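Appendix B, record 7
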Amino acid sequence: SSRTLYLTMGKTYYFKALLCAFLFGTSFTGSAQIHSLSLKSEGEMPLDFRQRFKDRYDQNLNETSFSNDYGKRDKEAFVSLATYAVELYIGSGKLCFGDPLTNYCDSILKLVLRDQDSISSKIRVYTLRSNDVNAFSTHQGVIVISTGLIARLENEAQLAFVLAHEAAHYLKKHSLESFEYAIDSLLKKRGLSMEDRLLARLKRSREDEWEADEFAIAQVKQAKYNPNQIAPLFDILKKASIPIDDPAFPYDEIEDSNFKFRPKESKGKVVSDLGHKLEFKRDFRVETINQSKSENETIDTANYSTHPEIDLRKENFNKAFPIKNQNASALELPSRDFLLVRLIARRDALYNYIMDGEYFDAWSLSDLLQIDSLMGVGKEYEYCKIYALYKIGLAGKKQFELAEGEMPDFSITGKYEIAIRRLNSNVLQSLICRETWKLFQKDTSDALKALISDGLIEHTRNYFEDQIIRDDSLLKADVTPSGAKEALKIYFAASQFDNLKHRLQQKSAVVSEPESSAIQARPVVHKMLVISPRIINLDFTKNPIRQIHDAYKMQGEIEEMIMTSASDLGIQAESLHFSPEDTNAVAKYNHFAALIDWYYFQASDSLGYPLTQANMKEIANYYGTDYFNFNLNIQLKYKRRFNPNLFVLAILIPPYAPFYTHWQLTPYKAYLLYNSTHNIRTGNLEYEYLNNMRNKYGKLRINAHIYNSLNQIKP
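Structure tokens (predicted):
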């Protein structure tokens, strides 16, 4: 651990900036799109990623032993689910190995477990590209920690406590004991209701969490970490739903002499200068009242949680460490290694916010990163900010305003979002357009900024034009025609908005859409990349062993059909599902993850393609193809519709009744096959094929549909 610095001054933002300047001399500039923000795997691929599911399952089955004499079927069910839990994240492309975050966490874990040689060598740490504030461990010794959690931590000591807590779950075999306890509750406590069984299992889970906390406390003690630094961790976990660091809304940077919307304090209530009130409780709790009981009796929600209350955990931690100087943690700076790791995690968090459509959080985090990373560093932050502004502007006030009498949900807690929700529609649209224009003016030659700026200006112009020409009686008080005209006149009065105001006051041009061709030209594909994500709909009322194994077998068969049919049709197909023997498995895994991200992002927003275009061109050049073939194969279950003819037949012919009853009550399996071809250089969807077959999986039938789909794009 790096040596600790102490400051005796109040705020440390200036010193943090100087420290970042010293540490991060090599900036992250030069990227034209946001793909460089995302975390990527590096180095040698671990065995967890190289092993096939069947091999990993067999290995875990041999290494797992129950404390009691349970049946073989129970053991296989537990191992199947435990193995599938890791495979699920690997198959999503979200799990990373060999990256700076994973390597750093691994070194910290070795330090905090240096007296636990029996388990430290068996534990593997991986980082999950997710903004969920979460960490968990599996029965196999895999600890997964999300970038969203690392991005919120304040120092290395907090990270050490989290990792030690998860290591305790593996050391104490909590997942296996929980499974055994669930079996016992079914076999030995048959007199209890389902609710009582659930409460008993949840109580056992909370006891496991207490035990993990006690282990983590002991380990950070022996590692000589400062307890003053760890204690705020519980407050971070408590505020997991708010944005990272929750920065204050930048009124000073946005407002000018003509454009002011900062709320004013009046008798404890927040009142905007436009006369709109918004009362917002930051830490309200929803109390669920059991209607069947007396009015004064409420349900204790703590009993329905898998974890103890965070305040109780913090109290327990403070008892273990009598803190002499309560202000010491505020004077201690994090190590330089941790600052760098947290910066990388926050960059990935910004990427995830954009991909997940969390635009308020993306806006606040992009501003925060610009401050923490020095002026001029990270052009990607500006791309994320201008895109987030664009999406908020397109959504408009109606998409996120609270209805009358509606209570805010737990996610509506960020200062940026609260500030925006207070505004009326005219102020909001003006604010978004002004801020987008400022970003565009920094570099008017930037094609992406020009594209987004033009789109938002056109949208804003149409918005104000619509308010001005509509009848007063149809409008609310804050969007009257006179109000819209006044907004255009005043809110854009500053000299820097002269050109923008001129464009907004122009009449909207009527653009005639080109006539659509009756027959769309089909693409001619000579080579393509193939991805077939594994989608398994587990029915937890039945043993999962066969379901999981059949799904993986099915996925392998379908991919083989695609490769064979493509070869027969003269298409060179390359699968991005790497095998353990692949020499370029790491590159394939990163490309697989990037294409999965791009596919779902592109499916929700075509304008987002320029944000990822550079990465897609890099993949196209690497494999020498412009085309990407995506196959989604899902086996669904449907309830059978009531058939009156068969019902009458069952009544008339009694021996037929049992067969009819079984037919009516048993859902039938239907197979959904989706195949699409995309041009990854242009982002265009070139061809798609969807077939929702009303029967279950059959190799010959599926093979025919795959051949028919690929036949449409053959050379």
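Remarks on this record: The chain is about 50% helix and 10% strand. Residues 1-32, 266-298, 325-331, 471-475 have pLDDT under 50 and may be disordered.
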